[in-house]
Structure prediction request, 430 residues.
Amino acid sequence: MSGREMGFIKEAFDTNWVVPMGPNVNGFEKDLEEFVNRVTPLHSAECSGNSPSGNAESCAKPRELHKAVCCLSAGTAAVHLALLACGVGPGDEVLVQSFTFCASSHPITYLGATPVFIDSERDTWNMDPELLEQAIKDRMDKTGRKPKAIVPVALYGMPYKIDRIMEIADRYGIPVIEDAAEGLGSRYNGQVLGTFGRYGVLSFNGNKMITTSGGGALICDDEDAKKEILFYATQARESYPYYQHEHIGYNYRMSNVCAGIGRGQMTVIDNHIAHHRHVQELYCELLDGVEGITMHRNPAPEFDSNFWLCTATLDPALRIKGEDNAYRQVITGAVGGAAGVTHAAKSATTDCQPNANVEALRVCLDAANVEARPLWKPMHRQPVYSGCPAYTNGVSESLFEVGICLPAGPYVTDDDVRYIVDTIRQSIES
Ligand SMILES: *Cc1c(COP(=O)(O)O)cnc(C)c1O
Prediction:
């Protein structure tokens, strides 16, 4: 943390705003609104006047959106309130990307609804629009009702095929909640993720693109939609001189101290994103000649990932040192030392896990003091969701078997990337 963040936090204490509302929360929301509402033209080079094809339309001035942002205590809270505002309740179904972190789907169950998992396509690793439409039709056939919402996820920051997803969602009249918790600042056709659907989820947890220690936000269509979210985020209080409650609410507003950190972070967000993209470029360049390892990249120019995490896949035939010993030992703590993991693993293996060479590479990197991780295990293969419907094509499961996340944070230097790639090279059996 730097002086920028400290200044805003000190101000919170000095002005006695150490509560879940206040000037920092309002200021952070304003900063976020400016950030998400700025649309950058895709082909800016062609618009400099040098293009012989100088097409006035594609050279339109940068567009402005008019979304409103509501800061909350966590990204998970943002998912929860977005679902609530879409009318999700007991007995409803919500279509959600299976290849994701559990915070995309857990809140569906908080509301007594059922997640229906949708597998991914290979280009972006995100929600497959074909399967989405198939699932909508099949759910309507089987239940006689429309699913209440669609939740695509920008996994590792990569944009989903939002134009196709929005076209399908609009055709069936189902609202889209974009889970852009990992995709803050990622763009599709120059427009920031989270601004296409009815709601967009952001996260400022410690490990995300920017942090407020813990926190999140919901991008809403307008001020009225934001006010409704704010109402539910602050215990659903009606305006009487006493506490009057006509709805059940939550204590989900962001603290003014956390928002102070967020305001400081907003002064460096563009640098953070540029750094992640630079690290991705460097991995691509340095791993280019390494056979059997493939970086996950933007599949086409309209996709502009923030590369929150840089990810790669390993050819199953690639031999990694120590892979014969992979999974021999039951893990006693969480991989990566995540806080809150208190249950010991019941077994060294499960029936859905990364290949031995992926686990062996993770162990080699760990021994060299580099924290790599498997990809997120698809939700439709999680024991807790075994009873939920799923529309699958094998893509997320096969990616989970071969994929690995490489370090990409603001403190990862060019030398670190070189060291990581050297370690990877040395881990390969010659
Ligand atoms: C981190 C994350 C969230 C939730 O954010 P928190 O702020 O940690 O509650 C939601 N969805 C995805 C995909 C995430 O990675």
